[in-house]
Specification:
The chain is an alpha+beta fold and about 350 residues long. Helix content is about 20%, strand content about 25%. Strands 6, 7, 8, 9, 10, 13, 14, 15 and 16 form a 9-stranded mixed β-sheet that branches. The protein is globular and about 65 Å long. The chain has helices at about 30-35, 40-50, 125-130, 165-175, 260-265, 290-300, 330-340, and strands spanning about 5, 15-20, 55, 60, 75-80, 95-100, 100-105, 155-160, 185-195, 200-205, 205-210, 215-220, 225-235, 245-250, 305-310, 320-325. A hairpin with a 7-residue loop joins strand 1 (about 5) and strand 2 (about 15-20).
Length: about 350
């Protein structure tokens, strides 16, 4: 790497100086910086360029696709990281159960679980800090206080949060075990494209990062073990009277990122509305009746809902179970799919 670090007027920031070599495979500014600054993600580099933090040949450049030439000197100023500790925000929560140890809630669509790049505020963690107060401090780390599992931003349903260290340790162990030796279970309702050729099954395929799209996961040999069990609850016909979609009940035996979405897509039955893993099935919507097609378009998310949560209470040892029905948008989709039959 050709580069150096020097102090800048902004306390705590870093200045990276690099020289384009022509070895990066592309003369684009963002790709040159990605090659020379491996500690910075491509998303972070793009944001810094757009923010006017990058100069090439002493001129500020705000276009990530700007072409540079071999030998051009490039400077990127990286400001100090934002404070790590999230603040409480008054965000309404649908609390299903709460005591001194745990909170069980019904997460709505669109709510990010914990702060991350691009979602520093407005998260479930921000809401929990406001709801629980100082009791969450230090439990599970400042960025994810009390969080022992997560749901994707647009997946709805049941989540449990720890309110103290003892509860956090117990729940973490239960989620790591995933019911192999204990009673913990997590169940999901999934509307998928196509109808499986048998009533139930198990998908046992390892999952790892996608080799080319880093924001995605994929079934990959050598990845982490991932096991999903599924049962067909209902099949739906399209406008032509032929099977087009199904409602599956899924249970996790492991808890990998995007596990159900990746596994079902790998099995040829991606979630309806999943723009990431089901984009190749968009034309399937043409086989839906008008009402169902409109309901799917209005959904605007993957059709996945965490309806079941069973766990051992971290203090009493009692086996506790919660179930929650489909949210309104999935009820509308279900009704519209049924109306064709």
């Amino acid at each position: 790497m050709q580069g150096s670090y020097t102090e800048t007027p902004e306390e705590g920031s870093e200045r990276h100086k690099v020289t384009a070599t022509g070895d990066e495979g592309s003369p684009r500014l963002d790709r040159v910086l990605a090659a020379h600054c491996p500690d910075l993600s491509r998303t972070r580099i793009k944001a810094l360029i757009l923010d006017g933090r990058v100069t090439a040949k002493a001129a500020v450049v705000r276009d990530p696709a700007h072409h540079v030439a071999a030998g051009d000197g490039i400077t990127i100023d990286v400001p100090p990281a934002a404070p790590a500790e999230p603040e409480g925000e008054n965000i309404p929560l649908d609390i299903v159960y709460e005591d001194d140890d745990i909170v069980v809630l019904n997460k709505p669509k669109g709510l990010v679980v914990h702060p991350a790049a691009g979602h520093e505020t407005g998260t479930l963690v921000n809401a929990l800090i406001a709801h629980c107060g100082a009791s969450l401090s230090g439990i599970g780390g400042v960025r994810r206080p009390g969080i022992v599992h997560r749901l994707d931003k647009d997946t709805t349903g049941l989540m449990v949060v720890a309110k103290n260290d003892r509860a956090h340790q117990s729940l973490t162990a239960q989620f790591a075990d995933h019911g192999r030796t204990g009673e913990m279970r997590r169940g999901y309702m999934a509307f998928v494209w196509g109808v499986p050729n048998r009533p139930r099954g198990t998908i046992d395929q390892p999952i790892d990062r996608h080799p080319h799209a880093r924001e995605k996961m994929a079934v990959r040999q050598g990845g982490r073990e991932a096991i999903t069990h599924w049962d067909t609850i209902e099949a739906f016909n399209g406008d032509d009277g032929k099977p087009v979609a199904a409602l599956l009940a899924c249970q996790l035996e492991t808890g990998r990122t995007h596990q159900i979405r990746v596994h079902l897509a790998h099995a040829g039955h991606p979630l309806m509305g999943d723009e990431v893993y089901g984009s190749g099935f968009k034309t399937k919507a043409n086989h839906l009746a008008p009402e169902a097609k409109a309901a799917l378009a209005a959904l605007g998310r993957q059709a996945l809902h965490a309806y079941l949560l069973v766990l051992e209470h971290p203090t009493t040892g009692e086996i506790m179970e919660w179930q929650t029905g489909l949210p309104e948008d999935l009820l509308l989709l279900e009704g519209a799919l049924r109306s064709t039959d």
